[in-house]
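Appendix B, record 7
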Amino acid sequence: MLTHADADVDLRAYRTFFGPPAGHPRPATSRIERAFVVVIATAVIVGAIMLTDLATEVPAAVAGLGGGMALIAGLAGPDPRRVNPPSAPLVAIYPRRVARGDLPQVVTRINLDELDRLGADGYGSLVGSARPGGTLGIFVDDYLVWARTPPRGGINLDPRFGID
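Structure tokens (predicted):
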């Protein structure tokens, strides 16, 4: 993409700020909720098995397995997903046609010295793909800033174009 002769290079508005480097993960369920879901699912499966004319040992075994899984789900530790640093230097890149109040198209992490070099906001030449997970860089004057993390889409916490 970046080495192709027809690579997209276009002028885009940008703004630097401090914020969350990745989007917010979905809220995790609590231990009680996980155990409750397993208990309900086990009850439904056992009820369906009991409607068939299988031996009583089969629903008893399924109920025992379900109870063990509910115990494990109830005792399982906290959400294993990484917690993002609360604040990092970011650059928000806005769409080609942008209006006052628009969210950025993509946001990516940059180094602290690049934050100083780029300034608060301005226009730069975007190189690459301005989409979440893409590869991009932004030229400002003769300085190229590469994305330090895969770009994410804009969220409501990001600065809107033309609004402080």
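Remarks on this record: The chain has a mean pLDDT of 80. The radius of gyration is 25 Å.
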